Amino acid sequence: xxxxxxxxxxxxxxxxxxxxxxxxxxxxxxxxxxxxxxxxxxxxxxxxxxxxxxxxxxxxxxxxxxxxxxxxxxxxxxxxxxxxxxxxxxxxxxxxxxxxxxxxxxxxxxxxxxxxxxxxxxxxxxxxxxxxxxxxxxxxxxxxxxxxxxxxxxxxxxxxxxxxxxxxxxxxxxxxxxxxxxxxxxxxxxxxxxxxxxxxxxxxxxxxxxxxxxxxxxxxxxxxxxxxxxxxxxxxxxxxxxxxxxxxxxxxxxxxxxxxxxxxxxxxxxxxxxxxxxxxxxxxxxxxxxxxxxxxxxxxxxxxxxxxxxxxxxxxxxxxxxxxxxxxxxxxxxxxxxxxxxxxxxxxxxxxxx
Length: 354
What we know:
Tol-Pal_TolA; TolA; rod-shaped; three-stranded antiparallel sheet; 5 helices; Fusion Protein Consisting Of Minor Coat Protein, Glycine Rich Linker, Tola, And A His Tag, Chain: A, Domain 2; toxin transmembrane transporter activity; 3 strands; 354 residues
């Protein structure tokens, strides 16, 4: 309900209350209460008591009637006021209901308008989506057509490339097989070359080692020969003196015979073991020497100086190394007994690395 409708209802109610008040005031009797002016003239009137009683009775009746009429009028006015008040309340209730109905109607109208707008927007969205879907379908159809054309073209190209790839793969397989054979031949050749190079390097190393050992042995031999020459000269002088000394003892030595011979043999064997140990201590042992033997004969001076060393059998590589060891020792210890010395000067030894 609008505000001006409520204002009209209030004005109507106020007018009704104003009319009620005027009606109440209009029906009131003020004649009996007004004082009559007093005059200066005095008139003598003869009053009949019966008439006065009758008049007074009439006046009381009139007043009672007027009072009753006034009460009836007031009661009617009150009834009218109550009716007007009820009518006003009813009008206000109706106006409130009308206002509530109007608010509901306005709310329903707003909701209906919002629903209408929502439906319109939804229809617009649906129409837009439909239009967009139709556009997308049209574009998709066009794209599908183009894709089919491109797919057909790509399929033709793929088949052509597949055939070319098959031919290229066959050629590649042929080249791979040829390359594999070439690489296999190359690997075999490299392996042969590597093996030959290793053998050559081993031979070169062995030759170099043998040459180094030979040079060292030759130098040692020359040094030994020089020392041996000096020793031989000294030995000749010693032997000349010893021959004179031993000439008188030969008979005694022959008498002692067997015991002396055994002693010389044992001592010769003991010194032979010492010489073998010295040679093996100075021997450059290789893995290939293990388990092999070399028979070597040494020619020594009386003071143990090496005059010569020669091999008489066995592994030649081991014998070369053994002779180099003999040269490295250069001088072997000698006993004081000339008979033993004589045995040791041409001793034969067996060298066998363990």
